[in-house]
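Exercise 3.2. Students should predict the tertiary structure of the chain below and write it as structure tokens, then compare their answer with the key that follows.

Predict this chain's 3D structure.
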Amino acid sequence: MSGFSNDLSDEQTNALAIMREHLSDVSSNPLLDDDYLLRFLRARDFEITKAESMLRQCLKWRDEIDIENRQNREIPEFAKFLPNCSPPIGKDKDGTPVMYCNYDGQDVKGLLQCCQVKDLIWLNSYSVEKADVAVKAISKPYKGATFILDYRNLGMDMLSKPNLDLQYQLNSNDGIFANYYPEFVNKIILISNSTVMNILFKLYKAIAPKHTLSKIELVKDIKDLKRFIDEDQLIGYYGGTLVDQDGDPKFSSKITYPSKIPKSYYMAPSFADYELNSDYTKVDIERGQEITIEIEVNTIGFSIIWFVLSKEGELEIGINFKGESGEVETVEPMAEVHCHLCPESGSKICSKVGIYTVVIKNNALLKKKRVAYNVDVLKEDGHDVI
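Answer key:
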């Protein structure tokens, strides 16, 4: 049996019932219908314990990034240049909804100067979440979507370290898509004729889940798309006959076509501006060394805020906590940030009273780095404490 809700064996039906019983503590979550639970069961070959653990980790992640509240989060203006998952447009020959993601000519260098990798991760998650909701609305049973990914005309910036970091966090076996959107992909049709994509795909094969790799079809010419999608279900831009309500064969109202990002959207300022600003502490961090900024918080609900910029090269930033017992625990694990391209800023609500330590580390092996930073604490009303 396929493991879809309309094609279950007795054993699979029993596994679904047991898993639902195990999840009774979160049964009020409207997300957890049979189709959703079956996605995790199929992803773990109907091993109930593994599927439950995977789903609970997913719910924890969704809570951490507040994906349910996505409609109330402000989307930055530069996001209009970011490739998106289109809503479903037509169906493939198997009757699966088709979605389009166009990376042709993507300005990766520009994007990475508009925000941090973590921001791009959230924006990608936001795009996939919207697409997933759209597929669920029209698919019973849920079988995911077929994706047309246009990777023609890629620049060498796709192979930059920040972008490779982004791709790993999104697409690896331990990444967001595999673990938090299981079975979202029915098929991937990847259009590419570039050397850069050939290199990227070799790297991707080394990190991607095997079951995802088995769903990928590589084509070099858009005419080959008709092997998978009938002409009347394929948009005009890719050789079909579909046009949108305005007669646009590109469906520009639903599909983002990347272009060069104007420098006016860049966040990376001149480091010299911060050298002269007394609000920021300037320090040289020797190779392989770190600095720590301790902050005592006496009231739950206050927030630690930070801003860090390096003159050259990435850093690692994390936060630790020490309470009355003296035991140190990790609040924010050390994570690499490319704050030479775009300033790293963030905040963390303090859930305990004690000493919080912000750690900034130079992970370079050969050179010291000049850093400007500001670490502060805000009350709930937004006023400074220190």
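Discussion points: The domain at 271-378 is CATH 2.60.120.680 (Jelly Rolls). Residues 117-138 form the longest helix (22 residues).
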